[in-house]
Amino acid sequence: MSAQGGGTRSWWGWGNLEDAVTGAERKALIGRVAALLPDAELVDHRPPDIGELGVGAPRVAAPASLDRLCSDDPADRVGHARGKAFRDVVRNLLGEVGEVPDLVVRPRGERDVVDVLDWCARAGIAVIPYGGGSSVVGGVEPRDTGQVISLDLGELADVIEVDTAARAARIQAGIFGPALEDRLRPHGLTLRHFPQSFEFSTLGGWLATRSGGHYATVLTHIDDLVESLRVVTPAGVSESLRLPGSGAGPSPDRLFLGSEGTLGIITEAWMRLQARPRRRAGASVLFTRYDDAVTATRALAQSGLNPANCRLLDPMEALLNAGTDSPGGVLVLGFESADHPVEAALERALELCRDHGGSPQPPRARNASDTWRTAFLRMPYQRDALAAHGMIVETFETACTWGAFPALREAVLSAAREAMRAAGAQGVVTCRFTHVYPDGPAPYFGVYASGRWGSTVAQWDEIKTAVSDALSANSATITHHHAVGRDHRPWYDRQRPDPFAAALHAVKSTLDPSGILNPGVLLDPRR
Amino acid sequence: MSAQGGGTRSWWGWGNLEDAVTGAERKALIGRVAALLPDAELVDHRPPDIGELGVGAPRVAAPASLDRLCSDDPADRVGHARGKAFRDVVRNLLGEVGEVPDLVVRPRGERDVVDVLDWCARAGIAVIPYGGGSSVVGGVEPRDTGQVISLDLGELADVIEVDTAARAARIQAGIFGPALEDRLRPHGLTLRHFPQSFEFSTLGGWLATRSGGHYATVLTHIDDLVESLRVVTPAGVSESLRLPGSGAGPSPDRLFLGSEGTLGIITEAWMRLQARPRRRAGASVLFTRYDDAVTATRALAQSGLNPANCRLLDPMEALLNAGTDSPGGVLVLGFESADHPVEAALERALELCRDHGGSPQPPRARNASDTWRTAFLRMPYQRDALAAHGMIVETFETACTWGAFPALREAVLSAAREAMRAAGAQGVVTCRFTHVYPDGPAPYFGVYASGRWGSTVAQWDEIKTAVSDALSANSATITHHHAVGRDHRPWYDRQRPDPFAAALHAVKSTLDPSGILNPGVLLDPRR
User: What region holds the FAD-binding PCMH-type domain (chains A, B) (predicted)?
Assistant: First the structure.
């Protein structure tokens, strides 16, 4: 995994240009898709030059005191104009950059953040906080926003203090995953939060969006790893005490976790760390019936064994992304510990799987776990290559109770297939569990469909609406860890209890009275 | 443990009259105190008759439609006038009942709750939600409140639905601990939330106060067991989706958890349950140095072994409440599982303890664990007996990081001793960890001091102020699981970040625009 710092970021697609899918890998990928979807067009398209995009001049000028923080470079501004969803990448490839931030502003300290917010509040300029820009829900995209800056926290990237006794560190929000781990490694510590975006996302982004990480059980969200938060709001700086636990009123941190830049700018956090694991055990388990696989996974999720990895791939996901042909799918299991052996836990887990018809694969061999992990890290790059070939490739995710899952999956698959048919897109839908809880799974769906170049965004939007409606109709959450952003608003609004929506509006009006912070995310912008 | 339903509730003290400390137990208890504190007065005092208390007539009358829910019985009203803190019990014994709710109102369904809030909002009558009334922080006590009703949720005590696949149940808020467990037992399930108040507190109370329960690690607070909440606010009913996890905006549930009746009335919740444990292993470990015991406990908390019980008693706590004379204190350890053996986890835990100088006690014998558990359940009753004998007996609790703990403990012990000296009270202070986290412990302190009858509340208030200031000065939370109520307000206000305080005020104004809900708790009452 190359560090974010070590490459040239793509303005239009995922990650670093140097890591793009090219040559033989690209050819093989397209070949596999051609075999799966023989009617697909699969014509390669290349991104336009930035000079061709017609980016207008900035409509705002920073006060002289803040000028040193500001970039009006078109490439910089275009690179901050949206996230990295399929629809973002395709619009970039088509040269449809839409609204672009007037300036990219890079504060060098918290005082700068305060000053920038003061300026923007006075001038009525919208502020979109920007970490790694890996949003897949329109979280960093100006949309009917007017004058707007992108507030890139990338210069606030220090690990300020490490408390080895408490295994915690005070970390600035703009640090990227690899740099953070590099800084913690000498202490024998790790945050162990590895979202798929790990290389190209920041601590602040994870916190603002309640991202889901490495652990399939227990510590599933970044929320659980937070000891305290420091947040700059237009109404003042909020800093919570460093506490391992508290019962003093509603949690202040939980208000800002998931606030997606609408209530304040998270500038730093004390995060709970882990010792680096020294013991590991893992296995893959094949099933002949998917229902059995789900029941086995549920038994495991309720066993208290707490595997670090517990990823059930359905048959299509297993085939496409783990190269495993198994009619009931494959369960990828992993245990880890810095303290004690984990073989007994794995053995008991496999026993539970066998009780439900599972066939553990011989260990030690390069198995589905390894294959899948490699594929996992390449997925966003492959997504870009496929998108450039006119494919519709996107994911969405949710969580529901175990009892609700079978009907939910049927509803989602059926809605996706129907929508693909209506949109004239031939394709497949995959499902895996990224996280599991005693009371239910977090299913993650993938869509791979042939599209019509120039229409794939509209085609995807139709599919996305259909599957989101299916989630909503089945009382599942619109997002388990991708966040709400602008794209999920209609379904989020349905899901959110009305009194809580009213409460959130009241908080917004209090902490951000000018309504400058990420307007349109979570809440309607003030007009 | 007798069920709450099976006895006669004491109006002035803890629990059921039938379970009070009497006869030989009372004599032995007082004898032990006399040996510890030879200067203590130890004269027994009895509660007054309710008829002597001079309870005034109610100042409000319910509308005819709600009359069937209302009680104006003086005993009922006095029984709802305050919680069960030491200062509550002593004031009751002294016949100083202070403000008494004008009516006790017992809704029989959620519609009644809505109607009562409508009436009170229109009439400007304060509403104090009441579960089991076990608050030790002035959470249910009218204080300079004016017209006020106590809204007793005790009739909303049903388990409405059990989802055995998800191991979850939809439960009404007014159910008491034993009744809840009785209802879950036939399903092989348990909430496994056993605060010390278990017999005399309710689900709704636990949720509103973020109570701490059975598990010393991981699932320490009731917060973690919540799947969804239903809350009646004056601005409408809020109901969150049943979700095992979500990342859709800030958590709605986390706003109501810990809101202590100030934002709405929790009427029901879907709660995550556990299978009843079948495997158990436990031990006690003695230490010669307390510092070593703390280090061992930290190692355990960071090991990922996740003991269900991990209670470090300091030497004085071990002596007084576990009958164990150990210069470095005693660590009480317990592991449990419904799925797999736990002996290996215990063995590894004991190994960690030995590494830090611990001496595991021979298992199987009736050891410190058992002694301590029995004492735990009798403590509130003994507290009442001691309070009636002019003793000052009270607890307070906090949480802090491991690095902060030694100085915090010193500061608290020193502040308590100094305050006792200043108040002319001879006594001792004990400390135990009720819960432990990878980043720090939740220390729980006990004060046992001789007081002057008639002045013990004032004496305690001086001690409480001193120790709370010490917590505050050491950046520890004013409460880990006792809640804020009215008594902890000054220190809570210091601890709470100002922008969050402003946000909470805004939420309060939106959800409870008339300011009728539990005025004075968490926030200043509206005047």
Answer: 97-276
